[in-house]
Write a structure and sequence with these properties.
The chain has a three-stranded antiparallel sheet. It is built from three helices and three strands. It has one domain: Herpes Virus-1 (2-Layer Sandwich). By secondary structure, the chain is an alpha+beta fold. β1 and β2 form a beta hairpin. This is DUF1272 domain-containing protein. It comes from Lysobacter niastensis.
Length: 82
């Protein structure tokens, strides 16, 4: 099941489960659209492309909640700054 991580790995911005600003790679690394743009749409961890994260229906979030574990790796995101 998709983890739906709560934040951007680069800037630590909160990303709600229904956020249209959340992008993920195939390993579920999670980024906001602004940071993903700075990274050229490529995950700094695996090099894979980033896509819009699917949303989960609100009535299913109670039974299958989004992750609360934050991943924050700003050092890996510096490669995309420029």
């Amino acid at each position: 099941m998709l983890q739906m991580r709560p934040n951007c790995e680069c800037c630590d911005r909160n990303l709600a489960p229904d956020s249209a600003d959340a992008l993920i790679c195939s390993f579920e690394c999670t980024f906001c659209t602004q940071c993903a743009g700075k990274l050229g749409g490529r995950c700094p961890n695996c090099g894979g492309d980033m896509r819009a994260r699917p949303t989960r229906a609100a009535h299913l979030l109670e039974k299958y909640p989004a992750s609360t574990q934050r991943v924050f790796k700003p050092e890996g995101c510096a490669r995309g700054a420029g």
